[in-house]
Automatic annotation (TrEMBL):
Pfam families: RelA_SpoT. PANTHER family: GTP PYROPHOSPHATASE-RELATED, RELA_SPOT DOMAIN-CONTAINING PROTEIN. This is RelA/SpoT domain-containing protein. Gene3D superfamilies: Beta Polymerase, domain 2 (3.30.460.10), Nucleotidyltransferase (1.10.287.860). It comes from Streptomyces cinerochromogenes. Residues 49-171 form the RelA/SpoT domain.
Length: 333
């Protein structure tokens, strides 16, 4: 096979402008796949995707004069960010990537000697082959750069980016600003450790109810369907009733994941036709629970234990809320 000549920066820019929609689609499909895989593993995380802006691509291609092949050397054309609540979940997220995707390389600076002296939070990047069958015009699968961070580190990275283009170079940064950024890094580490300690202590506390665990599971799976905001207080009120409909079933989390995967197309259609941006919702002001994560539990119970659900619902929540959900799931009382 003949070797292709490297593209100039301008040629790479023209190609990227033309291929960006396909690259964006590859990133979104990969992110959706990882959300589903994370839900199956009960891993709490936020997964987002983006294609590099055309203006950012051309600026990077021209600014980095040491690029001999800008098209192939700029590897973050498609980007995915996985944000976990605290630092001990970073390895779980890394294992998720390793077990789900074709990994090209891993850049893990967490144990890198001398890294604590740099003005940068430890980088954890994974270059992967995009999920699916999409390929570029040369017949090469698209790639994605996956950034894995904690919530606190993500805040720090976005803040520091506004003060300097890329963290790591302290040249021309005033000493008082450098000191402030170092102090913030220390606070990030403290925040991560305290969040982890609090989460683990709460999970072991006798007052941490099945209600909280059930809602957390529904939220993880709901994120694989929708990014629409929801009413947390309403979720808590409804789950207080649903927990009795589920009963003491230690394997229900796995059951709910399996249900969501088996009926994914049907659930997606329900959210599209009756969700918060649908004509049905906007015109009639009904179908309130379709935009809530507990809708997944309701659909599952309607499919597998509808009479138990109805008996527990009556007298605790408004009947119309359940009637609307039953109509969507095409269940007759």
């Amino acid at each position: 096979m003949a070797m292709l000549m490297p593209l100039t920066a301008h040629e790479a820019y023209r190609r990227y402008r033309q291929e960006r929609p396909a690259i964006e689609k590859a990133a979104e499909l990969t992110a959706a796949y990882l959300r589903r895989r994370a839900a199956r593993r009960h891993l709490s995380c936020q997964v987002s995707a983006r294609a590099k802006e055309v203006s950012s691509f051309i600026k990077k291609a021209y600014r980095k004069r040491d690029y001999t092949d800008p098209w192939n050397e700029i590897t973050d054309k498609a980007g995915i960010r996985i944000v976990v609540p605290y630092s001990s979940l970073l390895d779980e997220a890394l294992d998720l990537i390793d077990s789900s995707c074709t990994v090209i390389r891993v850049e893990d600076d967490r144990e890198k000697p001398g890294f604590e002296e740099r003005l940068q939070y430890p980088r954890l990047h994974v270059q992967i082959q995009a999920h699916g069958e999409g390929m570029d015009p040369d017949g090469v699968p698209y790639e994605c750069e996956v950034q894995i961070r904690t919530e606190a580190a993500d805040v720090w990275a976005r803040m520091s980016h506004s003060l300097m283009y890329k963290p790591g170079s302290t040249t021309d940064i005033p000493s008082d600003v450098r000191r402030s950024l170092y102090r913030l890094i220390a606070l990030v580490e403290l925040y991560d450790s305290e969040v982890e300690r609090g989460v683990k202590a709460l999970a072991e506390h006798p007052d941490f109810s099945r209600n909280n665990r059930l809602l957390a599971e529904a939220e993880r799976i709901y994120q694989t369907f929708s990014s629409h905001p929801y009413d947390r207080q309403l979720s808590e009120d409804v789950v207080d009733v649903l927990v009795d409909a589920v009963g003491d079933n230690p394997s229900y989390a796995d059951q709910l994941v399996e249900f969501a995967e088996e009926h994914r197309s049907r659930i997606e259609r329900a959210y599209e036709q009756y969700g918060p941006s649908s004509e049905q919702f906007l015109e009639h002001g009904r179908y309130l629970l379709v935009s809530q994560p507990e809708s997944l539990i309701i659909f599952e119970r309607l499919a597998n234990a509808r009479y138990d659900l109805q008996a527990i619902w009556e007298g605790n929540l408004e009947d119309r809320l359940l009637t609307d959900m039953a109509r969507i799931w095409q269940v007759r009382w």
